[in-house]
Amino acid sequence: MTAETEDYPSKITLYVVVCWILAAFGGLMFGYDIGISGGVTAMDDFLIKFFPKVHERKMHAKENNYCKYDDQNLQLFTSSLYLAALVSSFTASKVCTKFGRKPTILLASAFFLGGAALSAAAQNLWMLIIARILLGIGVGFGNEAVPLFLSEIAPVQHRGAVNILFQLFVTIGIFLANLVNYGTLKMHPYGWRVSLGLAGVPAIMLCIGSLIITETPASLVERGKELAGHKTLKKIRGVDEVDSEFDQIVRASKIAQEVKHPFKKLMKRSSMPPLIIGIMLQVFQQFTGINAIMFYAPVLFQTVGFKNDASLLSSLITGTVNVLSTLVSVYAVDKIGRRKLLLQACIQMFICQTAIGAILLVHLHSTDSLTKMQAAFVVTLVCLFVMSFAWSWGPLGWLIPSETFPLETRTAGFAFAVSSNMLFTFIIAQAFLSMMCHLRASIFFFFAAWIFAMGLFVLFLLPETKNVPIDVMVDRVWKKHPVWKRFMVGDGGSLSSKPTNSEKI
Q: Any stretches that span the bilayer, and where are they (predicted)?
């Protein structure tokens, strides 16, 4: 425990653990949708109902392996959610600031529940797309509020592990979705309706959770409820000696109240380091190729020669690897640190993407299949890729932006991070099948090149934030970094002042 954390004593109580878990159902909601859409788009009944031309191409014996799923409307089914989430994240930022994290989480569950019900009942493509938009609004609200809630309610020495609960539940959601798809594949003709409708279960759990969890002390103080904030801080810390931490929250709140236009504040030079890093982590997270694999894992495995049930089973295997590997991050992030996990993963992901591309380039042509041994090796490489992503870029892409913005720009800055994630998730989801058709095996080299660039970014531009309280982030991180210290002077912003202006979380 560092000197800074000793000033802010805490105990882990049953109540605060319950709050962490209930809020993390927002990740389960998000993950279920990521996993369910790829499996559903591989189901014949779903394709016959909404995308008959795709189904016809799929069943054509001599159809090009890389192009049989290339359809813009099919991609729109997956990607429309992320476009809606992109837009809604900025509204969610304002709701988070004005009304608090707790009501924002409640709204997220309500939108997602409505989208799940409509998608299960959809009779035509436009009903399906509207349902996806509702789901997207729910994702936008949930992904804005939940990581902020977890970071703000966690003690600093456990902040990384607690925040990663969000990503852990994302991976559990993906795993459960693959399990559901495997079970509904033979439920003709409405198995896809069951798969889509069950998205309402994590939404209901999050809705119940939003009524039980507490509001964060930072949000309460920010909205003028100092007495409630002090009482809540004692409750979640499990100790009475919280005055030092509470005073820092109050100071941060007073500085935050002086900032009337947080989005304008974000454009100042002193706000650039956390903003640039928050956005670039989201861009890089998507250009690892992970969502291309997770969205379309069943399609991908069919492309390399697996049949429907075998491809979904392979997706189930990757989902299991995803969950278990995220647990590694929960343990390691506050011990090993952020940078080492990210750099190690870049090496492992680069090797896997390059190897997959090489195998497909040499052995998978337009109308043939891989041998069983070759296909099994591709699945193994996919698992190794997912493994490294799950303990690094997956959780840390959400953790680092949630812990680096000061209070006055926290919801606005994190909205940029969330919207960047959704924008590039949308781009990948909308373009991947077409890219696979035109680039073929080279698409994996495309992602490998991005992973190489990501490694350089981490090596030269990403500071270590392990065990650094946010209230000293500027002095201990930004002002000491060889690149970012140049941004810490010049515009009179609070980032360059002492003491720093962010509450301890």
A: 12-32, 74-92, 104-123, 129-150, 162-180, 192-213, 275-299, 311-333, 345-364, 376-400, 412-433, 439-462
Q: How does residue 456 score in pLDDT terms, banded at 50, 70 and 90?
A: very high
Q: Quote the tokens at residue 235.
A: 């409750």
| Model pTM score | 0.80
191 phi and psi, to 5 degrees?
A: -60, -35
**Which pair of tokens denotes residue 379?**
């699945």
Amino acid at the residue 170: V
Structure token digits, residue 53: 């031309």
DSSP string, 269-332: GGGHHHHHHHHHHHHHHHHTTHHHHHHSHHHHHHHTT--HHHHHHHHHHHHHHHHHHHHHHHHH
Instruction: Give the contacts of 222 (CB within 8 A, at least 6 positions apart).
Output: 97, 253, 256, 257, 407
Q: Where are the alpha helices (DSSP H) in 185-287?
A: 191-197, 200-212, 217-222, 226-237, 243-257, 262-266, 272-287
Looking up tokens 């999050």, which residue turns up?
206
* pLDDT number for residue 370: 66
Query: What 3-state DSSP class applies to 463?
Result: coil
Contact 339, 274 (CB under 8 A): no
- Assigned token pair, 82: 């992320």
Our CA dihedral for 221, 224, 226, 231, rounded to 10 degrees, sits at -70
473 by DSSP, 3-state: which? helix
How far apart are alpha carbons 225 and 248 in whole angstroms?
15
Q: Which amino acid is at 479?
A: K
Q: Which residues contact 293 (CB under 8 A, 6 or more apart)?
A: 300, 318, 382, 385, 386
pLDDT tens by residue, 198-209: 999 999 999 999
Q: Cβ(366)–Cβ(261) under 8 Å?
A: no
Count of other CB atoms within 10 angstroms of residue 336: 16
Measure the CA–CA gap between 429 and 296, rounded to whole angstroms: 9
Domains for the chain: give ranges and CATH numbers: 11-496 (1.20.1250.20)
Burial, 214: exposed, middle or buried (Cβ in 10 Å; 0-12, 13-18, 19+)? buried
pLDDT at 400: 92
Q: Left, alpha or beta for 100 (phi > 0: left; psi -120 to 50: alpha)?
A: left
